[in-house]
Design brief:
Layout lengths: L1 H22 E7 L7 H8 L2 H4 L2 E7 L3 H9 L5 E4 L2 H8 L4 E10 L3 E4 L13 E4 L5 H12 L8 E4 L3 H10 L4 E4 L3 H7 L3 E5 L6 E10 H6 L1 H20 L1 H12 L4 H12 L10 H5 L19 H8 L2 H8 L2
Parallel strand pairs: 1-2, 1-3, 6-7, 6-8
Antiparallel strand pairs: 3-10, 4-10, 5-8, 5-9
Helix pairs in contact: 2-10, 2-11, 8-12, 10-15, 11-12
């Protein structure tokens, strides 16, 4: 009788372990419709999370603060966002950590109203950014420096997502803003002028990262590993299956113009990291502007799971699969 109960107990334990490992549900947030979000959409819509043993739900959360609150409340398990959000949260004491980076350049175009003919015309004008202190402000400051100006020569305002900033620019309420594709190409198609493409400058910045709470990573390392396996494969699929990637982009952005979608894909894919290892040099540029930081950059990211996947041969195997 005791042996029978022992066998039953073992079967139950094994079943529960199988269920946990094969039925783990995760929620993943993304912050907008810029082109650097496409790889996570592709990974989800291609069924790669299911392939690697997790049930995933994608959630759009606009704004760094609501997104961070959701992660800290464990309502969101993985967040795809600009690196400035987890960096600022970590500086304020939140136990969050970046586990992957898929795009680490500044991917913005500086676009202006039709009345702006030269950089000098920007003096005294209003320039819109999505969020003060984030990557769009950095992009504007870098552009102004390139023009021989500074942030003191303009008025910076926080104006929200791409669509709102484009509308403000078209109406003349602001003189300039920075937009990433596909919004950039949509804005140009509506008559707005591109003054400079910041990607050409090669400025390192953690534009698109994945972050989690440290406690979630410690308690669910196997799930984190499966997530990164799926995401790494998704990056390769995104790079190699352009038709599928463009259809997914169309679905999530509601942009119907084939030329805009194609240009956006071409713009991002050539600089997207297929092995999403985090570069500390890019993270340093994500630290708050104008504030001295004494913390070590290593506190903000953890490449250990990705390095484990590489040492196990998964990364090389995936690259060969999508050649």
């Amino acid at each position: 009788m005791l042996k029978r109960y022992a066998v039953i107990t073992i079967v139950i334990v094994v079943f529960l372990q199988w269920k946990i490992s094969h039925g783990q549900s995760i929620r993943i947030s993304y912050g907008g419709t810029s082109g650097y979000n496409v790889p996570i959409w592709v990974t989800h819509d291609a069924g790669l999370f299911s392939k690697h043993g997790v049930k995933a739900e994608l959630v759009l959360i606009s704004g760094a603060a609501p997104g961070m609150q959701a992660v800290l409340a464990n309502e969101i398990h993985f967040a795809n966002t600009s690196g400035s959000a987890p960096i600022n949260a970590r500086l304020q004491g939140a136990e969050v950590v970046i586990i992957a980076t898929s795009y680490d350049l500044v991917p913005y175009g500086f676009i202006v109203h039709k009345d702006i003919q030269s950089p000098a015309d920007l003096k005294g004008k209003i320039v819109a950014v999505s969020r003060l202190g984030g990557v769009t402000e950095l992009a504007v400051r870098v552009t102004l420096e390139k023009f021989g100006l500074s942030a003191k020569d303009v008025t910076l305002i926080q104006a929200g997502p791409d669509a709102q900033r484009i509308a403000a620019l078209l109406s003349g309420k602001v003189a300039a803003t920075v937009i990433a594709p596909p919004g950039l190409f949509a804005a140009i198609s509506r008559g707005l002028k591109l003054m400079v493409d910041l990607t050409d400058l090669g400025i390192k910045y953690p534009t698109s990262v994945m972050f989690i709470t440290r406690s979630y990573g410690e308690q669910n390392r196997a799930t984190v590993k499966k997530f990164l396996m799926a995401f790494t494969e998704g990056l390769h699929l995104y790079a190699q299956k352009s038709d599928f990637a463009i259809q997914v982009m169309k679905k999530y952005t509601s942009i119907d113009d084939p030329e805009v979608l194609s240009k956006s894909h071409d713009y991002f894919v050539k600089k997207t990291l297929l092995f999403p290892i985090t570069d500390p040099a890019a993270l340093r540029n994500g630290f708050p502007l104008g504030k001295p930081i004494t913390r070590k950059v290593e506190e903000f990211y953890d490449n250990s799971v990705l390095q484990e996947l590489k040492s196990e041969g998964f990364v090389e195997k995936t690259a060969k699969l999508y050649k």
